[in-house]
Design brief:
Pfam family, one: GerE
Shape: globular
Low-confidence stretches: none
Protein name: Helix-turn-helix transcriptional regulator
Number of domains: 1
Largest sheet: none
Keywords: DNA-binding, Transcription, Transcription regulation
GO molecular function: DNA binding
Structural class: mainly alpha
CATH superfamily: Winged helix-like DNA-binding domain superfamily/Winged helix DNA-binding domain
InterPro entries: Sig_transdc_resp-reg_C-effctor (IPR016032), Tscrpt_reg_LuxR_C (IPR000792), WH-like_DNA-bd_sf (IPR036388)
CATH architecture: Orthogonal Bundle
Strand content: under 5%
């Protein structure tokens, strides 16, 4: 059986379940308008680590920017499984 998205030309749905708990936290803070430096400070990690996690979020959601990721999350009414 083929994937329905192939017939319609629509992209597959976002892989919300594939986000790690930390990636969910990072996306939540991105949705709140925080930048990588603020997220790093909030989570007690480095900016480089947060940037790596942001790249993971973008790749898993199939988007190219933080703005696209947050827009998709809001439009989909996404909520993290665990609170940040």
């Amino acid at each position: 059986m083929s994937d329905p998205s192939e017939k319609t030309g629509n992209p597959p749905p976002p892989a919300w379940d594939s986000l790690s708990s930390r990636e969910q936290q990072v996306l939540t803070w991105m949705m709140a308008g925080l930048g990588a430096d603020e997220i790093a400070e909030t989570l007690g990690t480095t900016v480089a680590t947060v940037r790596t996690q942001i790249r993971g979020v973008l790749a898993k959601l199939g988007v190219h920017s933080q703005r696209e990721a947050t827009s998709l999350a809001f439009r989909s009414r996404w909520a993290p499984k665990q609170r940040p």
